[in-house]
């Protein structure tokens, strides 16, 4: 692989040819250090690697609170860079002003859309507040679920939709929105989230706070005190009707709290998000 800087079209925030060349040197080292298997997954070859420079330039600074050390860093970087590039493109056309949201907005969004789960309508509701919601599938094997970041002072949320159960979709979305509500000042660097069922115990305070707000939005604390006593599907469906809470949301919360993921797996799998 030879080091050549050809004419490159990009959205780089560089002030000079020198800065651009310095960035290309970093990119060149990054590509050289990338494992061969990852290059194959991304379609990078010695002949076309320069085409990926513009994607690299969209990569925000190092991510905060990365919880899953086993996740492939290169594939996650690529995903976040792609999301960032799309957000910049959208903002260039739409240039929405961010209207700061609070916890009440999360409850409004959830209660308004939980029964229809129309992804375009959810995107539009968030866009009205100046929040860009991007659905971006990750490369196979990339266990990333969501990211919250800031582009041009506007909040951006991206979801990979890797976990398609309805309860997982809403928890991920509300968790990322919770970061915007609670941790806006931290989003100068993206917060990337992985929600593997078995890896939710040892997480930092920031993630615990986002988890708590997302869970309480889906099932209010007053209802959870009773719901947590559920022992079977019949009781679950009864409480779902009583409190007007989607059965998959109750099932997902019970699985998480009791660490019994197989118990309600069939029920959860009956409710999927449609792309």
Describe the structure.
With 275 residues, the protein is an alpha+beta fold. The chain has three domains: 13-57, no CATH class; 61-218, no CATH class; 220-275, no CATH class. 50% of the residues lie in helices and 7% in strands. It has twelve helices and four strands. It has helices spanning 17-33, 36-42, 53-57, 73-94, 103-113, 119-127, 166-183, 205-218, 221-227, 233-243, 247-258, 265-269, and strands at 132-135, 146-151, 154-159, 191-193. A four-stranded mixed beta sheet has the order 1-3-2-4. Strand 2 (146-151) and strand 3 (154-159) form a beta hairpin. Residues 2-14 have low confidence and may be disordered.
Essential attributes:
4-stranded mixed beta sheet; 12 helices; 3 domains; 275 residues; disordered N terminus; alpha+beta
Describe the structure concisely.
This protein folds into three domains: 13-57, no CATH class; 61-218, no CATH class; 220-275, no CATH class.
């Amino acid at each position: 692989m030879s080091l050549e800087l050809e004419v490159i079209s990009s959205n780089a925030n560089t002030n000079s040819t020198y800065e651009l060349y310095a960035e290309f040197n970093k990119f060149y080292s990054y590509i050289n250090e990338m494992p061969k298997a990852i290059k194959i997954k991304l379609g990078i070859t010695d002949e076309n690697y320069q085409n990926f420079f513009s994607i690299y330039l969209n990569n925000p600074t190092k991510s905060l609170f990365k919880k899953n050390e086993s996740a492939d860093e290169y594939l996650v970087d690529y995903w976040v860079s792609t999301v960032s590039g799309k957000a910049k493109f959208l903002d260039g056309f739409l240039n929405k002003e961010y209207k700061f949201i609070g916890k009440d907005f999360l409850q409004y969004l959830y209660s308004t859309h939980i029964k229809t789960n129309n992804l375009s309508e959810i995107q539009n509701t968030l866009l009205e507040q100046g929040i860009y919601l991007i659905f971006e599938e990750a490369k196979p094997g990339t266990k990333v679920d969501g990211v919250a970041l800031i582009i041009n002072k506007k909040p951006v949320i991206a979801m990979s939709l890797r976990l398609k159960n309805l309860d997982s979709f809403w928890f991920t979305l509300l968790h990322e929105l919770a970061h915007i509500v609670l941790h806006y000042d931290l989003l100068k660097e993206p917060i990337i989230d992985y929600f593997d069922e078995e890896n939710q115990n040892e997480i930092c305070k920031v993630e615990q706070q986002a988890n708590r707000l997302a869970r309480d939005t889906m099932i209010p604390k007053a209802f959870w005190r009773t719901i947590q006593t559920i022992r079977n599907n019949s009781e679950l469906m009864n409480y779902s009707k009583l409190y007007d809470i989607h059965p998959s949301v109750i099932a997902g919360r019970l699985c998480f709290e009791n660490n019994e993921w197989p118990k309600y797996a069939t029920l959860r799998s009956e409710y999927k998000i449609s792309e």
